[in-house]
Amino acid sequence: SHDSFSFWVDEHAPVGPDQKAYVKHLAAIFRFLAKKVMKKWSMTQNLTFREQLEGGIRYFDLRVSTKPGEPGHEIYFIHGLFGHKVRDGLNDINHFLNVHKKEVVFLDFNHHYAMSEEHHQYLIKMLKDVFGHKLCKLDVVEEITLNYLWENKYQVLVFYHHPSAEGCPVMWPGSKIPAPWANTTDATKLIQFLETTLGERAKYGSFHVSQAILTPRVKTIARGLVRGLRNYLVERNLPTIMTWVGAQKPGIDGVNIITSDFVELVDFASTVISLNNLLLQDQSGT
Question: CB of 126 within 8 A of CB of 86?
Answer without folding.
Answer: yes
